[in-house]
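Exercise 7. Given the encoded structure of a 336-residue chain, write a plausible sequence.
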């Protein structure tokens, strides 16, 4: 439906986007996830037509949008610093886009009522913007973006300005509203939990390119490279050289068969789940700290690696103490 093809964008001689491509299917919610400054907002502005790419194309239903002006694209935008009109009440804020489209009064009231219902704001019509909480304002902004039936909705860090507790509550609501609307959406965030909650498909942006795309479970199970594994905090990323029976690294020897040629350079992802063994584990280390986490303990090694010990499967060994040298059997390791 929407295709973003080989987008290049440079600012002040600094290439920001170096060939970004992805697509969105009908009714799909995708999430652009990447560090601050990776170019996510720029990608949205290019799709919206607010910014021109130097190279590449944006297509809708197979047709290039290159010469289609912003207002004719029929894309809804909800940006980070969403600005509601403070002098208008909730109804008028939500009706704004419909008035621009010259809808008649009856249609406007019907549609406003419908999107307010979708955004869990029934009965809010006459409320003033200044009387609303941050979360309510955010939902009004969403209702306003949905009202004109956009062909595509783009949300740029819509929860970025809210505090953590409110964000966690709103993200589930937002997910529900987006799903009920059946409008395809691009959601931009640097917060992976938000991304995983909202999206059918995650597009990871790094170094001007799509580092990986796929469903959250796919990306979690098979990170495409070192950056993805580190960015998502999937475990300990370790580089080293293949030796008999394992890998030699700056963290010590890792006893994990790679099946690769001796002397070859490798990058390993050691997932954090581990259990304590008396000796001969995957990795040995000096404990810097051990932190109780409810169902498990987080073990931090002096060298910076960290692992999670489940309360149960530790072979009857006593809980390690800081300063102790221990051996851990890592439950899952993979080559990157
Ligand atoms: P993100 O949304 O991922 O944080 P942005 O797309 O906002 O990233 O921008 C990435 C970088 O591109 C910014 O850090 C900035 O240096 C540069 N940039 C973005 N827009 C402009 C602009 N209009 N003029 C100059 N540089 C820009
Ligand atoms: Mg941004």
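Solution.
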């Amino acid at each position: 439906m929407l295709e973003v093809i080989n987008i290049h964008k440079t600012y002040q001689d600094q290439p920001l986007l170096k060939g970004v491509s992805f697509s969105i299917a009908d009714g799909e919610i995708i999430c652009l996830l990447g560090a601050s400054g990776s170019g996510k907002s720029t990608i949205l502005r290019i799709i919206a037509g607010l910014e021109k790419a130097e190279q590449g194309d944006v297509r809708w239903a197979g047709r290039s949008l290159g010469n289609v002006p912003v207002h004719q694209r029929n894309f809804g935008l909800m940006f980070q610093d969403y600005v509601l009109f403070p002098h208008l009440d909730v109804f008028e804020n939500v009706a704004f886009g419909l008035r621009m489209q010259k809808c008649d009064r009856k249609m406007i009231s019907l549609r406003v009522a419908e999107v307010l219902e979708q955004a869990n704001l029934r009965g809010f019509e006459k409320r003033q913007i200044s009387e609303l909480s941050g979360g309510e304002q955010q939902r009004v902004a969403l209702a306003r973006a949905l009202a004109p039936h956009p062909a595509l909705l783009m949300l740029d860090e819509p929860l970025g300005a809210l505090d953590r507790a409110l964000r966690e509550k709103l993200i589930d609501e937002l997910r529900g509203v987006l799903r009920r609307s059946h409008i395809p959406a691009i959601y931009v965030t640097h917060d992976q939990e938000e991304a995983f909650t909202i999206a059918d498909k995650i597009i990871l942006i790094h170094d001007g390119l799509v580092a990986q795309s796929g469903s959250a479970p796919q990306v979690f199970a098979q990170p495409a490279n070192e950056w993805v594994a580190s960015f998502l905090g999937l475990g300990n990323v370790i580089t080293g050289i293949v030796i008999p029976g394992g890998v030699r690294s700056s963290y010590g020897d890792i006893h994990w068969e790679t099946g690769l040629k001796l002397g070859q350079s490798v990058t390993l992802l050691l997932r954090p789940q581990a259990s304590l063994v008396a000796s001969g584990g995957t990795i040995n280390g000096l404990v810097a700290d051990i932190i109780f986490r409810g169902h498990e303990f987080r073990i931090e090694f002096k060298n910076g690696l960290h692992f999670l010990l489940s309360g149960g499967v530790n072979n009857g060994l006593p809980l390690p103490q800081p300063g102790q040298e221990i051996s851990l059997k890592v439950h899952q390791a993979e080559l990157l």
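Remark. Residues 2-222 form a domain with the Rossmann fold fold (CATH 3.40.50.300). Students should compare their own answers with the one above.
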